[in-house]
Amino acid sequence: MALEKSYSKDFESDELFDYEIIKPKKTLKIQYTYAKRYYKEVEKFAKNLTQLTQEEFMRLREPQKQVVIKNIGNMTRLHSKRAMDYTAKHGELVRDEFFNEVNYNDIAEQWNEQFERILEKNSRVKNCALHLVFSIDENCNEKNLKALELSVYQTLTNTLGYDYPFIMKLHAHQNNPHAHVIINKTNKITNKQLRFHSKDSCKEFYHTLRETFKDYLFANSKGELQYSNTPNIYRAIKNIETELDALEKQARNNKSFRHENYFYKVLGSATSQIESLKKRENALSDHLDNLKSLLEKTHWEKENFTPPTNEKELNRQLKEIKWLNKESLTPKKTYKKTQKLVVCKSPLIKDCLYTTKKLFATQKKIIDLEKDYKDLKVLKEEFSKDLEVNLSHSKKRFELYTRLKSMSKVFISKSIVKNLEKIALDFKSDRHSIPQRAFEFFRYMNYQNLSLTNKSNMFLVAKFFKDSALLVNIARFEMKKIDDSVKNSSPQGNLLDKQVWLNLLEHLKRLEEENYCFAKKRKEFLETRAMELSKDLKFLTQANENDLPIYERGQRDKIIKRCEKSLNFLQKELQCFKTLSKSASIALENLQNNHQITAVTQDKQENTNALKKIPLKDFNKTTNEPINPNNNYEMDF
């Protein structure tokens, strides 16, 4: 051992050798995430969109060629063999990590043996190789192909070094020069797999790869191949712009296309749902009748069991069964309790109770749907105005806001949406177009009541209060403008306009109170449900496998995870209620202040004969029906 140490020291100090310790390369740490780069480009685009003239903007958005590296995917042993066959065209020479031309069959045989050894040692390793394609948008000539091949090789060695073996091959079919690269993900020095710590580190790796590839293309072509690696915003929104143009054209040709399509679609959906629910009701009723006839022959008189006739009685019996099921038969139990326990554990009686429960729930759904269908038909007949998008005053911001919503789906980047929220707020605060559309927004908030879904939660209620606050601010601003202009114009006309805004505030106040009542009831339910889940979770973590019911044995871990997930979501809803209660009280207080401020004006209006014919048709016809706070309120831009 001492000999080895002295030898290494002499070797290290020998002037004839340039001694250097070789260490494996690590994946780059995140310095400047791709999401930030993308946001920077979007911000630049937004600035150009709102500040430059049309001619300057069109000249600025001339397309620039983007550097392209496609990740075909991670490959298993079998997939990598097929990909290598395609890359080498069945036995041709390929380039390796030392830029040597090697026989493809030899490399494929070595890699296949290596992959088999890895899988024998660790069966969890599935992906053994990575398949990338580097391409350029140029003609297929010898000069471009040589520049591409050299640039790809230099990019890989600069980023990965020589630690990971790879093969590469140029393809020139379809008049599109590109290079296929298969990277062996096993490090030659450490035998560890090429992995990324997070999604951000993966994005950063590919960004570095594209940036390096771009630089080498420029250098190897002596400045002829000039590509860009900036996020291509213009390409991303091209389809969205086309869609906007189509919508504007359709709106000009048919002004009623928006709400008519909405009404027909929802009415058809309601009809089909009602029909299917009635079929289910008939099937449940027939099954319940059969069960009752069996109970009369066997247990009806002996066990003195009475089927429930309403929902309250049903819930009482189900609760009693749930409690009795947890009890065990002991000598201490009285005779009546023992008999009752035997009755409740009867499969026939259980089936009868749960069938009754399903029947009551189905009947309730049918009643709610039929009421919503009736209200929707009334609204459809009375609705004559469409949601007019006034693009003359705020066209640029509206288009940008629409793109923002679409970009969040395309790129799935929450940080981009959060950073660009100021653009959305800027659009919402545009006073030229929003006041004229405030009444249409209010109508659409009511239309969401008819979404025919009986599910709701705190997050949807919080969204309603947010949208409601926007309308309150608009109404307050418009009424202030009316008060300021009373002296300079016709007081009668201004008071008429003001009464319309007051009607809007009254309806908003009623809706907010209903929603807040629902939120409080929802909170009580969440607290009760959270306690039940906590008890179930405690029982599951402490119980043995034999303590569980037969149908739950072998699935304890799965049930525990499901309980934890449900409990986590309930806690988030409860946390949302805390912020909701503050915002709701503020919004309701704002509405109350608006009523107090305008009390004097309303007294004057009552004494004015001209105000007897105040046009309330905008709201009274569409909002007289009580609104279910369980529904989903949402504003549609």
TrEMBL record:
Keywords: Coiled coil. It comes from the Bacteria. Pfam families: Relaxase (PF03432). The gene is virD2-1. Residues 102-203 form the MobA/VirD2-like nuclease domain. InterPro entries: Endonuclease_MobA/VirD2. This is Relaxase. Residues 237-297, 523-580 form a coiled coil. The keyword Coiled coil applies. It comes from Helicobacter pylori (strain P12).
